[in-house]
Design goal:
elongated, single chain, 2 helices, three-stranded antiparallel sheet, about 150 residues, mainly beta
Length: about 150
């Protein structure tokens, strides 16, 4: 069976049009590691009334240096410092980022502490797609009540 030339031409035109529509995105695809939030660059810790208070600023760019879109949350990790042992970070909290938020500074208060211990903390940003930022600066708190010391590295 032969199709008339106009039918074949019409079918080829439909096929070409369907292939050119795409998914509606107007930019080239970006590798997940490049769209990851940039690392937390500014983090502080202080001891107040039996609590270690961490404060950090929201990253403003992604790993490729472009403006960062919405964030979902921050994950706070902690490890006790034990001389001669590798750190074993565990997630102790998730701090939500309010939708359409203009908030630039976030905080977490750790109250689950033991006197005379040292703790290290890291905060990781998480995008709406679940992509995490690179490791951030580490904060070490030598917790001794009002005589505590803080190091950032």
């Amino acid at each position: 069976m032969r199709f008339p030339t106009t039918v074949v031409s019409f079918m080829l035109l439909l096929l070409a049009g369907g292939l050119s529509v795409g998914c509606g995105k107007k930019s080239a695809p970006v590798a997940p590691e490049l769209s990851a939030p940039g690392p937390i660059k500014t983090i502080q810790a202080k001891v107040q009334e039996g609590t270690i208070l961490l404060e950090w600023n929201r990253p403003t760019v992604n790993a490729s240096g472009e403006s960062l879109g919405d964030l979902k949350e921050f994950h706070v990790f902690r490890t006790p410092v034990v001389k001669g042992e590798e750190p074993k970070y565990t997630k102790v909290a998730s701090v939500d980022v309010p939708a359409d938020s203009q908030v630039t500074q976030f905080r977490y208060a750790d109250k689950d502490l033991g006197g005379g211990k040292a703790y290290e903390y890291q905060v990781i940003a998480v995008s709406m797609d679940g992509i995490t930022s690179a490791d951030a600066k580490t904060v070490r708190v030598n917790y001794k009540g009002s005589n505590s010391t803080v190091e950032i590295y």
